[in-house]
Structure prediction request, 260 residues.
Amino acid sequence: MVIKSVNLETVCGITSTIPDNEYNEVAFAGKSNVGKSSLINALMNRKSLARISSQPGKTQTINFYNVNDAMYLVDLPGYGYANANIEIKAKWGQMIENYLHTSKKLQAVFLLIDIRHEPSDNDIMMYDWMVNQGFAPIIIATKSDKLKKSQIAAHIKTIKDVLHVKPGTVVIPFSSMSKEGRDEIWNLIDSLVFDEETLLAMKQEEEAKREAKSAAKRAAASQPHKKERWKKTGKPVAKKTKERRDKAKSKKSVNNHKKK
Ligand SMILES: Nc1nc2c(ncn2[C@@H]2O[C@H](COP(=O)(O)OP(=O)(O)O)[C@@H](O)[C@H]2O)c(=O)[nH]1
Ligand SMILES: [Mg+2]
Prediction:
């Protein structure tokens, strides 16, 4: 996906009605601090449109990010923040449930799990609950940069085992630092959100953009380098440079003599 525009279009609080959007949506759920805002920013190529929380669990809203006037990334409220009181906890449950039931455009739900840790009871509950609602959550294993490459496969397996995922469930390691997994996640989103015709048009657009970029690179490379132009003037090297070079040369020849 070539990102042309992003816009936080709708923010839903507990009492707001879920918008009846024109374009398809994909939603992201996960416990507070798992890296949801960081993922959404990375997908949108933005540093901080989705706020990266200094106070986790504080914002209990559903945020709809309009991308390219073509689709929405939906940031669901983070769950399982230890200090949240019972009432707030109940609210996020209600809000997420309400959204999953109400949205007519929701195409897929992504569940974020920290790759370092076993899924918590809340994670398991969330996963089971989404499956019961008829969704097949796609798992994103966040903060993959925190592990060695050699550890990743084992941790993915643990996540699958502990969640008892349905066969064929995709688990994608992702890092907002290295951007590992970003392209894979976008490819998946594109295929879930757009029809064949749109996908083809997008592919062609991406191809054209890549081609234009490499053409610009080639053009820049064929331009004479600044230093070259200076050389072409045929002027002798600056006096000081010449002195420095001569000095170095004579030093070298003295050393060579010594060696002999
Ligand atoms: N090393 C590392 N840190 C991350 C990554 N993603 C998020 N974080 C950090 O984890 C904390 C919570 O991130 P945030 O995106 O606000 O999580 P949210 O509460 O799920 O929205 C922040 O301090 C982030 O900088 C990642 O991929 N790698
Ligand atoms: Mg957040």
The longest strand covers residues 106-114. The beta strands are 6-12, 24-30, 62-67, 71-75, 106-114, 138-142, 171-173.
